[in-house]
């Protein structure tokens, strides 16, 4: 009995589960409280992240050790898991679409979306060169990072207000979809430019570098069409809820991993899997199964973003930080508004699209991180 107690204590450490308990408690408080106040829970998770992070209560850990029980011990570990929130979100968006609807949206996706990315990259890069003295390659990297909006924030906001099927909602989704498609070419371009002496933006190796990403798209679509429906039918015959849930998670995460291995984003791979499953008879069952995972992981994603907010830097240099944020919002917002009007959206819809797409998104961390590594 004594040895049994010792071995039990050896493998069980309550502190290892502290971060999970803190997150679940935060979700239990934030979601109902903010919905009662008719505010987006996103704001609550962001604020809770600031409070529970190293720049919130964690800053007083040395003087008040007991506060360590109410702070996130390992933000990096939570961040890795939180990235799955965006993956599950894109999968759910794909489930609501079909190839036919995507075909109808092609003008907005490749027209409005392509022009938005190109125009915002050029505008931000120009400001980076003229106002901050950045060289061309660095300015292009900054522009590429800050021209992409946040799918994880914008799409839930549209869904909460039931605006995703309006003209503005379709235009916003189309732009976000093209931005997700643009992530892989941007990252590949950064890697190629960084490997070239002198940083040549027009290297002939650039087109060859896109081959793995294009191959990844083909693999996802072909294998998805061949395997998804038979696999889901086989699982459904077993009449096991646990097996069906495991199969759904395998599709989401497996598609994301295949996409990541070929240089694409995991979110884009999950989106393609969602579109393929939307054409099967299992669409609604999959949606009901995945929805709780998406909600929890998205909450964890926003919590991790709040944890990373450097409050001391904001307080030390408020004019620099807020000025840059306002400037970025104005540049992106103006570009989106003008392009939306060009594509014949009404002023109200164009303004809605401009406001929601004006801010930078989560892919900025990935792009800027790779740019600094290169």
Describe the structure.
The chain is mainly alpha-helical and 374 residues long. 77% of the residues lie in helices and 0% in strands. The chain is built from 18 helices and no strands. The protein has helices at 2-11, 18-36, 41-52, 75-95, 99-104, 106-132, 136-146, 151-160, 167-195, 205-209, 211-237, 241-261, 266-278, 283-307, 311-316, 318-342, 347-357, 363-373. The chain is globular and about 60 Å long. The termini are far apart.
Structural class: mainly alpha
**Unreliable runs:** 6-10
- Most strands sheet: none
> How many helical stretches?
18
Cα(first) to Cα(last) distance is 57 Å
Estimate the global geometry from the Cα principal axes. globular
Topology order in helix (H) and strand (E) letters:
HHHHHHHHHHHHHHHHHH
The beta-strand count equals 0
Return the average pLDDT rounded to an integer: 84
Rg calculated over all Cα atoms? 22 Å
> Could you estimate the helical fraction of the residues in percent?
over 70%
Q: Classify the oligomer.
A: single chain
How much of the sequence is in beta strands?
A: under 5%
Short overview:
With 374 residues, the chain is an all-alpha fold. The chain is built from 18 helices and no strands. The chain has helices at 2-11, 18-36, 41-52, 75-95, 99-104, 106-132, 136-146, 151-160, 167-195, 205-209, 211-237, 241-261, 266-278, 283-307, 311-316, 318-342, 347-357, 363-373.
